[in-house]
């Protein structure tokens, strides 16, 4: 199934009632990822319904966290909860690489450090809703790489059917670097890359926040003419359904892999294979030599072909790096000029990713492969990052070709674009389908 970026013409939406979601037969109602029940939760649960928590993920207050069936929690994600601010993640949802789900703002670090890391929430708009304490996430919610949810927040619990989703199965999508900050997102909603929904806002069914936008009033969330949101369309729904299917499969296959060899889900290691989109297990290679290093501080998974020898790679990369070829493959990466902490590589199914030599990656940079449709009926263009490119902190590349020597600024995104060599994308700028879409507003 071809996936299409969350952009495009709006569709007319008419809300109708939605029946209450049903758990799959034999699924657990909720499992707490305490040490005895990780990385498989529950430890003795069947692979078809167990949740999987990557061993590199950080769980604080696990007894106050609940995971539904078939949840996948990716590398270096964090789930932080307390008795006063619990966290629940519903069935078939996923918490991808370096995602933060924090029950309350005060649970991480001291207030000054946390404000620097997660931003200042601001005051809720007059008449704003106040969600229950903690974070409650419903079923089939995608929390993509680098996104974050700060409680109190509710995602995908209530709302309405929309014509763009005729099968009536609910879903929510948070894209790369998106943030939900004290808000309520109804079912069949989405938040695009580097966008934010602020305290007390209700994002209603059928609504998608546009890339880089900061929604801080209910009027901005409801009125399409203000330019911060649009209607969800059928392409959005098709994309979401494919992502959910992949991550449910990953929860199952990582569970199987762990039970065969507990060390295989750590460090530099194989992908789980076993799926229609990635059937074979592969090891990463360093300068042509395949290698497993279960004790490594980073997660390098599957068919990742690195130009550096392992020792050089180890010297030039930071911590909490996830280069993951467990969906699309291969990932080819030339000799690295430098890679800071929290960098993420991933690839959509039936696609690959090629990154050149002497590329510099800032903290939290995301490079995501996937085919780009240039002409209808023609082969999709691959995702390629050229030689000598610089990605500043939190820069995002998705479904794009980045020319040699280009620079993508801090907290900027280049999506669906052929970026010429030596281009400079300013800080906090979204480039979408070859055009400057606008600034990142928060």
What can you tell me about this protein's structure?
- With 442 residues, this protein is mostly beta strands.
- The chain has 2 domains: 35-240, 3 Solenoid (UDP N-Acetylglucosamine Acyltransferase, domain 1); 268-439, UDP N-Acetylglucosamine Acyltransferase, domain 1 (3 Solenoid).
- Helix content is 11%, strand content 28%.
- It has 4 helices and 44 strands.
- Strands 1-2-5-8-11-14-17-20-22 form a 9-stranded mixed sheet. A 9-stranded mixed sheet has the order 23-26-28-31-34-37-40-43-44, with no helix packed on it.
- β24 (285-286) and β25 form a beta hairpin.
- The longest helix is centred in the middle third of the chain and has 27 residues, at 234-260.
- The protein is globular, with a radius of gyration of 20 Å.
- Mean pLDDT is 90; it is low at 1-27 and 110-121.
Distance between the termini: 34 Å
- CATH-level-4 superfamily name of the largest domain: Hexapeptide repeat proteins
Strand residue content = 25-35%
Average pLDDT, all residues:
90
* Oligomeric state of the chains in view: single chain
- Structurally, how many domains make up the residues? 2
For the largest beta-sheet, the strand count, sense and barrel status come to: 9 strands, mixed
Tally the helices: what do you get?
Answer: 4
CATH topology description of the largest domain: UDP N-Acetylglucosamine Acyltransferase, domain 1
Annotation, overall tally of beta strands: 44
* CATH architecture annotation of the largest domain: 3 Solenoid
What is the molecular shape? Answer: globular
Give the class-level CATH name of the largest domain.
Mainly Beta
Strand order of the largest sheet: 1-2-5-8-11-14-17-20-22
**What percent of the residues sit in helical stretches (DSSP H or I)?**
10-25%
Low-confidence stretches: 1-27, 110-121
Give the class from helix and strand content and strand pairing: mainly beta
Rg is 20 Å
């Amino acid at each position: 199934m071809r996936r299409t970026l969350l952009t495009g013409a709006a569709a007319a939406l008419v809300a109708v009632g939605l029946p209450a979601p049903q758990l799959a037969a034999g699924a657990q109602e909720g499992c707490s990822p305490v040490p005895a029940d990780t990385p498989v939760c529950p430890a003795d649960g069947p692979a078809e319904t167990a949740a999987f928590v990557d061993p590199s993920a950080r769980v604080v207050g696990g007894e106050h966290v609940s995971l539904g069936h078939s949840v996948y929690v990716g590398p270096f994600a964090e789930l932080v909860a307390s008795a006063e601010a619990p966290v629940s993640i519903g069935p078939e949802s996923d918490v991808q690489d370096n995602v933060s789900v924090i029950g309350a703002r005060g649970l991480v670090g001291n207030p000054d450090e946390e404000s620097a890391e997660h931003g200042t929430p601001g005051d809720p708009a007059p008449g704003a809703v106040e969600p229950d304490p903690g974070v409650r996430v419903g079923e089939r919610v995608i929390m993509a790489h680098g996104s974050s949810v700060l409680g109190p927040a509710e995602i995908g619990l209530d709302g309405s059917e929309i014509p763009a989703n005729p099968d009536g199965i609910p879903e929510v999508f948070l894209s790369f670097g998106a943030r939900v900050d004290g808000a309520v997102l109804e079912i069949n909603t989405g938040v695009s890359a580097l966008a934010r929904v602020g305290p007390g806002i209700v994002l209603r069914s059928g609504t998608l926040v546009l890339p880089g936008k900061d929604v801080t009033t209910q009027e901005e969330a409801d009125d399409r003419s203000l330019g911060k949101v649009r209607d969800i369309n059928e392409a959005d729904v098709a994309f979401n359904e494919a992502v959910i299917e992949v991550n449910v499969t990953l929860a199952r296959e990582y569970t199987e892999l762990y039970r065969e060899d507990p060390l295989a889900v750590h460090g530099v290691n194989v992908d789980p294979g076993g799926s229609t989109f990635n059937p074979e297990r592969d090891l990463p290679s360093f300068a042509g030599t395949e290698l497993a290093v279960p004790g490594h501080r980073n997660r390098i998974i599957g068919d990742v072909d690195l130009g550096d020898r392992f020792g050089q790679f180890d010297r030039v990369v930071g911590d909490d790096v996830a280069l993951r070829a467990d969906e699309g493959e291969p990932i080819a990466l030339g000799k690295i000029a430098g890679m800071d902490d929290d960098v993420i590589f991933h690839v959509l199914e039936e696609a690959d990713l090629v990154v050149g030599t002497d590329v510099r990656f800032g903290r939290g940079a995301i490079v995501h492969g996937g085919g780009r449709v240039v002409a209808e009926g023609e082969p999709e263009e691959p995702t390629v990052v050229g030689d000598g490119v610089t990605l500043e902190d939190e820069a995002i590349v998705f479904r794009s070709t980045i020319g040699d020597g280009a620079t993508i600024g801090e907290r900027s995104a280049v999506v669906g674009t052929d970026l010429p060599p030596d281009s400079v994308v300013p800080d906090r700028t979204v480039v979408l389908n070859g055009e400057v879409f606008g600034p990142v507003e928060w």
